Amino acid sequence: MTSFFEVHEKCIGKEKMHQLKNSRIAIVGLGGLGCSVAMGLTRLGIHNLVLADNDHIERSNVARQILFTKSHIGASKVQTAKDALVEIFDDLNITCIQDYITTQNGINILKSADIIVDCTDNYMARYAISKTCESISKPMIFGGVQGFEGQVGVFNYKNSKPFHHIFPNINSLLKVENCEASGVLPFVVQTIANYQVIECYKIICNENNTLNNQLLCINTLSNKSRILKLE
Question: How far apart are CA 66 and CA 33, in angstroms?
Answer without folding.
Answer: 9
